[in-house]
Amino acid sequence: MMRKMGLLAAGAVVGAVAMGAVVQVGQTGSATAASSETYRQLNLFGDVFERVRSDYVEEPSEKDLIEAAIDGMLTSLDPHSSYLDPKSFRDMQVQTRGEFGGLGIEVTQENDLIKVVTPIEDTPADKAGVRAGDVITHLDGEPIAGLSLREAVDQMRGPVNSPITLTVRREGVEKPLDIKIIRDIIQVRSVRDRAEEDVGYIRITQFNEQTADGLNDAFSELKKEIGKDKLKGYILDLRNNPGGLLDQAIAVSDDFLDKGEIVSTRGRKEDDVQRATARAGDKADGKPVIVLVNGASASASEIVAGALQDHRRATIVGTRSFGKGSVQTIIPLGRNGAIRLTTARYYTPSGRSIQAKGIEPDIEVVQELPEELKGSEEATGEANLRGHLSSEDGEEEKVSAASAYVPAEAKDDKQLQYALDLLRGIQVNNRFPADPSQGIPN
């Protein structure tokens, strides 16, 4: 199996989901000795730094200058390499664990104020009476106007058992409300499940340290609620899942596979190859599986979809995925934070690199867009990111920004309804059910 992989995440939530990418935590190999030309360029950097430090119109922060120079060097490589200052590194570690001290609300910014998207069930905010749609105007009596979303989130997070008072405006209530909340451990629930009558529906929103355990709980709950004999199959919804921990993506794939390779990573050197393979035991009990993907399914999501597609363990339904096929290593720098560096590409079991290409679904199903989103078909995805790693064969595929749309109501969700109809035999397609005997040789 691969070494344990880490997660880079930057969140705009207080006890909810965060964006991520497949990365690993570790050290890279020793660097080649620098040439005399390299030292000449470093001297150039020193000359420029000294001139800025001494002659800029206002006295600059030397720390900020150096950090910006480091970040500029890394971001010039590709869109996923960057510098993490100590605070960003701590935030990443918090998101990796999937739990932290906070309130338990998902928030967004609206007109310079912070609006509650939803309180998370059974968290301090939920118990204190915070409601979806509440607009937070003050934190401990201090106005929130002028703060960025991240700054507001940072203030709402804090040590467990510490108090904070939110002042909120609520529609239909004349006066602002003061709500006192005691912070507690908030667990980011990355796996949600429900019974769709005779079908088990499982949605994974990101891959954090809680994901594999959450999937196991979902299997148990659905088998108990529906009944193993009545359960026709599973829908694994990876739409709008931006990625996360590689080891969790491997564990999720393993739960559906009995044997065979799940993913491999290959670095710059020929011998820098790692492979992860499945262990015996299909927790879905061989039931038919449909994986839903769209243009915002990226990274770890694509690893799962690619593995199950190559082994013909699942039928992939939806639209082409994002196309992020690279691995970032998090290299700690002691008290100075860390760097996130792209060190490898990953490959599906059949040897496909999906970099800048994505996973093509077995059955394409395009959502019906509401009027306000029609015309938003501008290209997005990895292939449209400036400075992205090119695909190995030179063939790249862009995806549409509109392909990330998922209706709020299940009845309006064309992809979900098509998957349900396939599992119930209402729809027929020769790509379903997937036949593992036609998958890649193990």
TrEMBL record:
The keyword GTP-binding does not apply. It comes from the Bacteria. InterPro entries: ClpP/crotonase-like_dom_sf, CtpA/B_N, PDZ, PDZ_sf, Peptidase_S41A, Tail-specific_protease. Belongs to the peptidase S41A family. It comes from Rhodopseudomonas julia. CDD domains: cpPDZ_CPP-like (cd06782), Peptidase_S41_CPP (cd07560). PROSITE patterns: PDZ. It holds the Pfam family Peptidase_S41. Residues 1-20 form the signal peptide. This is Carboxyl-terminal processing protease. Residues 89-157 form the PDZ domain. The keyword Signal applies. GO terms for molecular function: serine-type endopeptidase activity.
